């Protein structure tokens, strides 16, 4: 991959308009962008799929040659979307064995991705629950609740954890 030189494509008009787009329009654009970028980087034989999952914002499936992006990315900025899309495209340009190693990282940076193992995104936007305790030693966000969380007490103030549904 390192012998190829990629050009960084940026849709500045879309970037500038991102905040004014409706969430539905953003989903359409996310799909369009992913298709455009993967074709641009020579992955014409790869498919793009949008999924409803919160588990991973993007995924690269080598067996079926599919790049999937979560519809929840609609809540994120243009730059965050771009980073997730390019992250998965970089996986598709490398092999499964490359993982998030140096080969992948170099490739990711070559195509304009930050090359971070996990896209640098705000988890709060994805979370369904906010969990706190009376002394606020516990203060975190989760997509799903576990049985343990529902019954847990704070180690410091001994108060029950308070669970708020936020999404
Ligand atoms: Zn990855
Ligand atoms: Zn506490």
What does this protein look like?
The protein is α+β, with helices and mostly antiparallel strands. The protein has two domains: 12-121, Zincin-like (2-Layer Sandwich), CATH 3.30.2010.10; 127-165, no CATH class. The protein contains five helices and six strands, in the order ααβββααββαβ. The chain has helices spanning 12-17, 23-40, 78-93, 102-110, 147-151, and strands at residues 47-51, 58-61, 66-70, 129-132, 139-142, 162-165. Helix 2 runs parallel beside helix 3 and helix 3 packs across helix 4. It is elongated, with a radius of gyration of 19 Å. The model has no long low-confidence stretch (mean pLDDT 88). Bound molecules: zinc ion (2 copies).
* Strand line-up across the major sheet: 1-3-2
Mind telling me the C-alpha Rg? 19 Å
The proportion of residues forming helix, as a percent range, comes to: 25-40%
Name the CATH superfamily assignment of the largest domain: Metalloproteases ("zincins"), catalytic domain
What string, H for helix and E for strand, traces the elements in order? HHEEEHHEEHE
Q: Assign the CATH topology of the largest domain.
A: Zincin-like
The first-level CATH class name of the largest domain: Alpha Beta
Report the sheet with the most strands, covering strand number, pairing sense and barrel closure. 3 strands, mixed
Poorly predicted runs are none
Q: Give the count of structural domains.
A: 2
Bound ligands, each once = zinc ion
- Percent of residues in beta strands? 15-25%
* Known CATH architecture of the largest domain: 2-Layer Sandwich
Overall mean pLDDT: 88
- From the N-terminal CA to the C-terminal CA, the straight-line distance is 41 Å
**Shape field:** elongated
Structural class: alpha+beta
The total count of strands amounts to 6
Continuous helix count: 5
């Amino acid at each position: 991959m390192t012998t190829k030189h990629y050009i960084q494509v940026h849709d500045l008009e879309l970037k500038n308009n991102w905040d004014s787009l409706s969430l539905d329009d953003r989903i359409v654009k996310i799909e369009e962008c992913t298709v455009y970028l993967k074709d641009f980087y020579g992955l014409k034989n790869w498919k793009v799929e949008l999924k409803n999952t919160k588990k991973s914002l993007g995924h690269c499936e080598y067996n079926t040659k599919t790049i999937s992006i979560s519809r929840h990315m609609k809540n994120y900025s243009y730059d965050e979307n771009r980073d997730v899309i390019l992250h998965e495209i970089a996986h598709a340009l490398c092999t499964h064995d490359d993982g998030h190693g140096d080969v992948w990282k170099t490739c990711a940076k070559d195509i304009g991705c930050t090359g971070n193992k996990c896209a640098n995104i705000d988890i709060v936007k994805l979370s369904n629950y906010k969990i706190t305790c009376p002394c606020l030693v516990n203060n975190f966000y989760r997509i799903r609740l576990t049985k343990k969380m529902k019954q847990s007490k704070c180690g410091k103030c001994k108060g029950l954890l308070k669970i708020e549904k936020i999404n």
